[in-house]
Amino acid sequence: MRLDKFLKLSRLVKRRTLAKEICDQGRVMVNGKVAKAGTDVGVGDELTIRFGHKQVTARIEKLQESVKKEEAASLFTILKEEQVQEEENESLSSNF
């Protein structure tokens, strides 16, 4: 399944066009590599997505062509959520 379609179906991103845009900006990684919107994803792949100052890491649990809103969260498991801005500030202040 295409990465942008999975992001939309899983409700990690609201719209597929938005999913394509963030992929094109290099803000999505699949298994540690920057991924484009057309990248094929499969069960077990790890996604890292940057939303502004937040970074979310999730593992794909299953793929479906259509999913109800209530079941969308079952497509993935959140592994880690972190604030990117705070980490950058901490590393800058530790250099002084």
UniProtKB/TrEMBL annotation:
HAMAP family: RqcP. It comes from Lihuaxuella thermophila. CDD domains: S4 (cd00165). InterPro entries: RqcP, S4_RNA-bd, S4_RNA-bd_sf. PROSITE patterns: S4 (PS50889). Keywords: Protein biosynthesis, RNA-binding, rRNA-binding, Stress response, tRNA-binding. GO terms for biological process: rescue of stalled ribosome. Coiled coil: none annotated. Key component of the ribosome quality control system (RQC), a ribosome-associated complex that mediates the extraction of incompletely synthesized nascent chains from stalled ribosomes and their subsequent degradation. RqcH recruits Ala-charged tRNA, and with RqcP directs the elongation of stalled nascent chains on 50S ribosomal subunits, leading to non-templated C-terminal alanine extensions (Ala tail). The Ala tail promotes nascent chain degradation. RqcP is associated with the translocation-like movement of the peptidyl-tRNA from the A-site into the P-site. Belongs to the RqcP family. It comes from the Bacteria. The keyword Transferase does not apply. Gene3D superfamilies: RNA-binding S4 domain. One of its GO terms (molecular function) is ribosomal large subunit binding. Pfam families: S4 (PF01479). Residues 1-65 form the RNA-binding S4 domain. This is RQC P-site tRNA stabilizing factor. Associates with stalled 50S ribosomal subunits. Binds to RqcH, 23S rRNA and the P-site tRNA. Does not require RqcH for association with 50S subunits.
